[in-house]
Every structure is written in C-alpha cells, then in structure tokens.
Amino acid sequence: MSVLINKDTKVLVQGFTGKNGTFHSEQAIEYGTKIVGGVTPGKGGQTHLGLPVWNTMNEAMAATQADASVIYVPAPFVLDSIIEAVDAGVKLIVVITEGVPTLDMLKAKRYIEQAGDVKMVGPNCPGVITPGECKIGIMPGHIHLPGKVGVISRSGTLTYEAVAQTTKLGFGQSTCIGIGGDPIPGMNQIDALKLFQEDPQTEAIVLIGEIGGTAEEEAAAYIKEHVTKPVIGYIAGVTAPKGKRMGHAGAIISGGKGTAEEKFKAFEDAGIAYTRDPSKIGEKVAEVTGW
Q: Which one of 24, 40, 166, 198 counts the least CB within 10 Å of its CB?
C-alpha cells in the first residue's frame, strides 16, 4: 500500500511540451511512472517523448481514463488548467507551478470542493512520489527507497533531506507528499496525516513545517486527537526575522504569529517528537521508533 499514487496510476501532463513539462516528464518516465500523454493547446495530434498530445483535457481523458494530472503551465494559466482537469474527471491534480495568484487558488479550492471527490496537491510544490512505483513532480527519484515512513512537507528541498536520511538508514518511504509553500494549498497537513494514519504500509510520519500561518498548530492538535502512529516534526525558519517573506509566499511571520517557536511549542504540547536540526531528522525517526 501507499497513498494517493502507485505503480498503476496513469498520469497526464498539462503543459506537456514546454521546457519544464518535457524535462520532468522524461525523468518520471525513466523512473517508471505510467505517463500516458499530455495536453498542450494547439499541439493536439502530435507526439512528444513518444506519447500522444491532445488539445484539451476532455480529449485526453476520453482516450486514456487517466487517474492523475500534473500541471507545469505558467502561473497565469493554472486556474484554467485545474478547472479543465476537474471538468474532465481527473481525481488527483498535482500543481508544481510557483507564483499562482492567491485569489486563483481560492477559486480553484472552491471549484474542487464543489466537485466532491477530487484531491489537489500544491501549488508551488515538488509533487508526490511513491518510491519505486510512481513519481509525479520534480523530486530526484534516486534518493528514495520503498519503505515505511510517510513524509509530509511544505518545503521541497527539506523533503529531500528527510528522504535522503531515512533512505540512508534503510527505513525508506511509503509515499512523500510535498504540499507546497503557498498560503492556500490544495491538500493541507491534516489531509495528508489522515491518509498516512489509514495506510497500513506507513509506520511513522515525518512532518516538515515552516514559519507562517497556523497549519502546524492545527496539525499538532489533530495529531494529538487522531494519529496513533509516531510523528517526527521539524520547522524551518528558526532564525527568520518577523515580517520578511522567506522564499515561500506562505513563509512570513505576520503580526507576531507563525514563528518557529510557536510551532515547536505546539508540537511539544501535542507530545510530538521534534528536532531543531534538519540534519538529524533521520536520527530522530530512529530514536522515536526504536528501528
């Protein structure tokens, strides 16, 4: 088992023929992901990377019955791409693009909620990977190892850090979900925690948060009440000054709220093991689980 995706997941690429879509699709195919084609308006009927290109998601879905789509289109066109994917019947939408307007994300979230059983990961995220089976996004495949740690992260590179460490120790990962660094993500930390709590393959969960917002505090309260598996936490941005945006749109301490200290305290209050050193995430997993 894993969550969200597995070896049978059929994936369509929106923005397939662009530079990013092309590069990351090549990597995903090499990894063994079942990419079944892609969409670039105006290029329908062509082939790209040996796979078919369609003009619209409706045509692509009619031909492939894909399970998921990954979006590499420029930020101004992301909202339309999400709506098109939902209307075509895609059940998992992974948005890699950074810089999507916040208002567009509000509209996209409402549209997805009205659609019902659609999940969206991102935007501004590395994507989702089930090691050895399916890679949707931009993460380096080779650092992953099939295993038993579920990883949830707002940060891309820190996800890779947690992955590399749990791989080195031989624990591996069940699935890694990069929820992204924007203020309004599709899937949030609690959504991801629910999936891992229910997944029999996942025996421990690494939660990598960062400054800004209250998502980690809410996740900590949820973990205390509902998660029985060991959770290991880390918060990025310990030294961040207040009022300065740190790389991610969502990583800003405003009104004195959203500091790393507040989030570590929330972890502590919920009885969640955490480390303040990103190079010690793997060691902390070993310590907490006894593996």
A: 198
